[in-house]
Predict the 3D structure of the following.
Amino acid sequence: MVETGVAAAVNSKTRILILGGGFGGIYTAMELSKSIARRSSGDVEISMVNKENYTVYTPMLGEVISGSLSPLDVSIAIRDLCPHINLFVQGVEHIDFDRKAVITSVNSSSVKNEIPYDHLVLALGLEDNFSIVRGLSDHGFHFKNVADALILRYHIIAMLEQADTEKDTAKRRKMLTFVVAGGGFSGVEAIGEMNDYVRGAARRYNNINDDDIKMILLHGYERILPEFPPSLSDYAYNILKKNKIDIRLNVFIEAVTDDGAVLKGSTVIPTKTVVATIGGAPGAVLKALPLKKERGRIIVNQYLAVSELPNIWAIGDCAYIMDNNTNKPCPPTAQFAVREGKRLAHNIIAEIDNRPKQPFSFKDLGMMSALGHHSAAGVVLGIKVSGLLGWMMWRFVYWSKLPGTVRKIRVAFDWILDFVVPLDIVNINLDPTENISKMHFEPGEIIFSEGDPGDKVFVILSGDAEVLKGTAQNPVGILTIGDCFGEGALMYDKPRSASVRTVTAVDVLTVERKAFKALFTNVPVLREAFESIIYKRKDIA
């Protein structure tokens, strides 16, 4: 079912539709609003499609992990920034260039919404490319939005709580080892904030010493922060090392499981926390577009327009834009996206008014990265800054660019409080309500051990595993695609009667105890099926 959106109500107006509410999309909308406000004709209408009704001020996202800033400090309502646009809090399903319409849906529901346009702005950004590492989508932590930062924060606190009372040395070591994959800006800032927070919070736990904590940064190239001059990259490297962060260069992560990170060469880092900041890839909608692309990004001309089709524009991370100053592609950074958005807004209005458009040109003002421990490094207007001065400048620059006086006051107040109040270690349970999930295991891993309590049922989606029994752990059976196991311990509330170990890499679907109990109790056909499985195969519980 397709419903026509409100943007179609006034057909006499030129309809500008922006897809994406990141820096590029927001600043396009803001600048368009200013331009349209100066027009007396009221002949232009602006609409935006974004999955959330807010935009995230990503440069400060890392401080949500440590609690220095509230999630609301870095979340800005789009309606406040762009009060005169039509906002569709929906997901983009399909773009129909022939009909000049975008098909959207709310939470991927079956009811679709059709939004027509005269000018279309593609500012959809990129999505996390977790598929390049086995198990990363099942066990890795994202770090792109506020929810990601909060989930990671509360997971860190949960690890500290469990480690404080854990007697098993190996399990305790895994809980206190934190891995970040990716040594770019996001990875360096994430591990800097995590390191400060974990080591600061650990002082509140009686049984955790600073030496128990391991912070590991994995980077696949010769130096971290490769966008920096080598001297600043080296400075950042030394500061992180001084702050007890283990940096491993020229290292690639190959797989992630519930118990560790597997590196190229089969080295395993036992850990319960892997944060991935390893770059993005175009989403399904962008991939499907019949437009010329370079490295997955849509190629645009100097005016930010797509050459193949009229009135189609692209900016931000999803666009391949040549920088006239360097003759290289514009980097996917906020400062470039902001300027692209402003230039694009003027070019769209120029196109509508049949006036000459202006090419996009912008000289990089510099770049900065926070390193933790009140230290930062960067280049501003060609001048290298570092240390405490760099950190103060880093904070001031991003604080000054926060939209809205009220938000600036809130952030400043939170920063002052951060110096005088102890770290907050309250752990709010953010576990999803659904009880079905996926897990990945590498060859030779134990899925569960004989004697373990029954907490979930497993179904193999890919790979093979073997069943082991007794102190000698002798193989007594093989499990393969489609096999279900682990149900006996849940059905009869008893410990596992066997161990299961993977033979190959294995993906499983898991059903938690509560959901399984509800199904087993209330669905007779399912109960009979599981009872039949147990009768035929009594060696796995």
Summary: Residues 5-10 have pLDDT under 50 and may be disordered. The longest strand covers residues 44-50. The two ends are 46 Å apart (CA to CA). The chain is about 30% helix and 30% strand.
